[in-house]
Amino acid sequence: MRKITVPLLLLCGLSVLLPLAEAADPPEGFTSIFNGKDLTGWHGMGHFNPNKLNQMSAEDRAKKHAADLENAKKHWTVENSELVNDGKGVYLTTDKSYGDMELLIDYKTVAKADSGIYLRASPQVQIWDYTKAGGKWGIGADKGSGGLWNNSKGAPGKDPSVLADKPFGEWNSFRILQVGDRTSVWLNGKQVIDMAPMENYWNRKVPLQRSGPIQLQTHGGEIRWKNIAIREIKAEEANKLLSKAGEAEFTSIFNGKDLSGWAGPIGPYQVKDGVLTCPKRGGGTIYTKKIYSDFVVRFEFKMPRGGNNGLAIRYPGKGDTAYVGMCELQVLDNSAKGYAKLDPRQYHGSAYGMAAAHRGYQRPLGEWNYQQVTVQGSKIRVELNGTTILDTDLGKVTKFMGRKVGGKDRKEGHFGFAGHGSPVQYRNVRIKTLK
What's the predicted TM-score (pTM) here? Predict the structure, then answer.
């Protein structure tokens, strides 16, 4: 604990008079993003599409920033190590963007207020008056704060699982965990959201953006914030968090020692320390001896520069899986310059030649990525690092990239890896059959 004795600060054009106060140190592993004294590391921005902001010229962005700053001066102050907003004006927004992270934040608000926390500049973890007198029971306020209220009606996470708000006048504490588009929320020690996908409010046809700022929404009444700290989550931890859900239902299909249970040209493939490495030259499709119909497969992969591989889905055991199997799901280094002008249906996660996956969700080269693929009937869903990048029905595909995929309507087949002369690596491969 440390005393703050600075009487007057002028920062980013915002004057704040501070009395004596104490600011709590963050828990181990966390970094404070509000210093209890001033608005260092924050700026103003209201409910504004981040894609439009990115498309602005530098001059127009500067003008918007200046206007938001003038607005923030009127409505945001710092008192006793607390951020205070009068219920009006732009939202306080972190200068830094965050991807996978854990956020701790305390808040205290008043009756009839309606607020929230934007994640990656998208609304929002809801905060509001949970009482009947607040007037919003008809839209979910009776269920309490902490839900992803801007998700579609009936979508997972829209409503909190339990009412955990404290009475007005008391401080509430949020713990928010986000990996990919999966958001978990604890309010006052009670988990109210469990790994629910947060929708992209700005364009529900595309996934939540990979990173973005945190925003503190202001709406309808005074709200105070304190003890704001964050911990950025690295790839290894993110993969473990993503794999926890339902893990007991999965069975390993790669023992990490050899290719027992696999068939095809397995000779050139290398197995060492739990990792399967595809050949630098040649390769071909290796596949499970077991046949699957509907299933979910989970695995981790590491991509070399220019890496190119694929997942054989319902493969018959011979031929080019991209055409004779249900499909080949691309495993590709999307960042490689040599792949800059491919057909969209050739990038990572795509059903090769048939359905394009969203891009921008691979981790940097050298890091392990986590992927889950669900195959059910004619539908395929691909989740990369916690974000759904493909959700399609191949039964409805009528246009192909060149050659028709004759096997797309197969009902069963082997699962495998289609080597294309690139040392892509795999580990922790496990599968769950679906009824």
Answer: 0.91
